């Protein structure tokens, strides 16, 4: 770049992130997110997701630096050579899931998820959930602690902990993964085309209440949840060439 880009530095509330924020603003100045060319997120993956939810609609690329406990979506933190790193960074485009949930009270609630949408039982009673794909019932009754739909970027997170598959970026797929399935006991989930509409119907929601969480946004007492990949919303993350997200997702499949 012939000139320094306009950067909006955003930081989590953690002390080290706030210290880094002060240092970087002193060196490079500060812009409002609406006026910036690049957003620089300082924190962990949770703060990166918060940044995408809060500012993803601006269409600005986001470069994250790890100052938290988990940083799969972040680059390593260094105070020096930031401008050179931004100039050499490689873009990765993510497309979130769109979720629409219907609650017992008749309220309709929508949200985006860049990692996953997960349904979880609210009480000691196991959830009973019917699963439909593109308008066709595929599983009449899943008895479980929960079930989720994960994006490729989110497939290494909660999805992988629940024994779901790791999905390569650019594979145009999503993961449908049960959480502690009791019946059918041997069902391990499915890998679906990204444009599949997934519909969850909660059976007996009064006796067996279920909540849904899109990344960190929770809605309780749902009776139906519809999930599909967004057709209009995308976000761009920037990664150092030696630390790009595609390589990290691939490497996760060979961790023993």
UniProtKB/TrEMBL annotation:
UniProt-listed InterPro entries: ATP-NAD_kinase_N, ATP-NAD_kinase_PpnK-typ_C, NAD/diacylglycerol_kinase_sf, NADK
GO cellular component, one term: cytoplasm
Binding site for NAD(+): 45-46, 115-116, 145, 153, 156-161, 180
Keyword field: ATP-binding, Cytoplasm, Kinase, NAD, NADP, Nucleotide-binding, Transferase
Short name of one Pfam family: NAD_kinase_C
Any single biological process term in GO: NADP+ biosynthetic process
Compartments, record wording: Cytoplasm
Catalytic site positions: 45 (proton acceptor)
Keyword Flavoprotein tagged: no
UniProt keyword Thylakoid, yes or no: no
Enzyme Commission number(s): 2.7.1.23
Cofactor(s) essential for the protein: a divalent metal cation
GO molecular function: ATP binding; metal ion binding; NAD binding; NAD+ kinase activity
Principal subcellular localization: cytoplasm
Catalytic activity: NAD(+) + ATP = ADP + NADP(+) + H(+)
Purpose: Involved in the regulation of the intracellular balance of NAD and NADP, and is a key enzyme in the biosynthesis of NADP. Catalyzes specifically the phosphorylation on 2'-hydroxyl of the adenosine moiety of NAD to yield NADP.
Family to which this protein belongs: Belongs to the NAD kinase family.
HAMAP family linked to this entry: NAD_kinase (MF_00361)
NCBIfam families: PRK04761.1
Protein name: NAD kinase
Organism: Pseudoxanthomonas taiwanensis
């Amino acid at each position: 770049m012939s000139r320094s880009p306009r950067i909006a530095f955003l930081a989590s509330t953690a002390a080290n992130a706030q210290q880094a924020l002060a240092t970087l603003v002193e060196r490079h100045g500060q812009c409002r997110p609406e006026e910036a060319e690049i957003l620089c997120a300082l924190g962990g993956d949770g703060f990166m997701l918060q940044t995408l939810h809060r500012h993803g609609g601006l269409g600005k690329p986001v470069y994250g630096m790890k100052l938290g406990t988990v940083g799969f979506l972040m680059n390593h933190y260094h105070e020096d050579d930031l401008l050179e790193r931004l100039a050499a960074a490689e873009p990765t485009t993510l497309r979130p899931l769109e979720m629409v949930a219907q609650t017992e009270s008749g309220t309709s609630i929508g949200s985006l998820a860049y990692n996953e949408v997960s349904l979880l039982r609210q009480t000691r009673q196991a959830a009973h959930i019917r699963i439909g794909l593109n308008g066709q019932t595929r599983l009449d009754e899943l008895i479980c602690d929960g079930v989720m739909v994960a994006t490729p970027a989110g497939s290494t997170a909660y999805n992988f902990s629940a024994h779901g598959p790791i999905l390569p970026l650019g594979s145009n797929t999503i993961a449908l993964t049960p959480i502690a399935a009791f019946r059918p006991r041997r069902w391990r989930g499915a890998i679906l085309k990204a444009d599949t509409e997934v519909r969850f119907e909660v059976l007996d929601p009064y006796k067996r209440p279920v909540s849904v969480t899109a990344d960190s946004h929770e809605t309780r007492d749902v009776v139906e949840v519809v999930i599909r990949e967004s057709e209009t919303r995308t976000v761009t993350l920037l990664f150092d060439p030696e630390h790009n997200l595609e390589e990290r997702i691939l490497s996760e499949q060979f961790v023993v």
